[in-house]
Design brief:
Blueprint (H helix, E strand, L loop, with lengths): L2 H27 L5 H8 L3 H7 L3 H24 L4 H17 L4 H11 L10 H14 L8 H12 L13 H11 L15 H8 L11
Length: about 220
């Protein structure tokens, strides 16, 4: 192996280590955590961090894009399910499980909302999720007043159980079962109040979580 090949391999290995440790660090301390600490955790020098990520925002953007890629990888199984209801089950289960195991994601989303508010790769998922909702409702398996954004909010809620740490992760499916029962179509349903959010509004909200100034403040 020549020196150039070895150097590239070492660089890839360091890059992956930095991403792994950044996920852990941001989950614990938020995206403002010191990058010097990231270097220590990854076992590299501070200069190595900045060679791979010239600034904090570059690291946040890569983590964000990796997350979008992981969601793309989940889509084929969800959309190819044998029934619309099974697609709904898989959508909630797979995405909530992913989010519960990735507690750094909300902090990364908030930061991306600040860095580049017009960057919306998640918009590509809106139409397919609308389609699986329509399919399940046409089957009569999903209550007729539920929207795709309702499902996205439920994923967010279920995924937030990851804040309790790994100890709780074996138990979150209890809440998933409760949610799925509430989504099933049946004759004695209590109608949902009000209208559901549109996708763009939900995107803005999910990328701006946390306290917001009161009007006029």
């Amino acid at each position: 192996m020549n020196a150039a090949v070895s150097s590239r391999r070492d660089a890839r290995r360091n890059h992956e280590k930095l991403l792994v440790e950044a996920r852990k660090l941001f989950a614990e301390r938020g995206v403002e955590a010191p990058l010097d600490e990231l270097a220590v955790r990854a076992g590299v020098g501070a200069g190595t961090v900045y060679r791979h990520f010239p600034n904090r925002d570059a690291l946040v953007r890569e983590l964000y894009d990796l997350g979008v890629g992981e969601l793309r990888d989940l889509a084929p199984e969800i959309l190819a399910a044998e029934t619309g209801w099974r697609s709904v089950e898989l959508y909630l289960e797979r995405l909530a499980e992913w989010l519960a195991n990735a507690p750094y994601v909300p902090a990364v989303m908030r930061r991306m909302g600040e860095i580049d508010p017009d960057y919306r790769p998640g918009a590509e998922f809106a139409e397919p999720i609308d389609g699986l909702v329509e399919r399940a409702q046409a089957e009569g398996s999903l209550r007729p007043d539920v929207t795709a954004v309702d499902l996205a909010v439920l994923v967010d809620m279920l995924g937030s159980l990851g804040q309790y740490g790994g100890t709780y992760l074996p138990y979150w499916r209890r809440q998933l079962a409760i949610v799925l029962d509430g989504l099933r179509a049946r004759p004695d349903l209590t109608p949902l109040p009000g209208a559901g959010l549109d996708f763009d509004t939900f995107h803005d909200m999910s990328h701006r979580k946390g306290p917001r100034p009161a009007p006029g403040a």
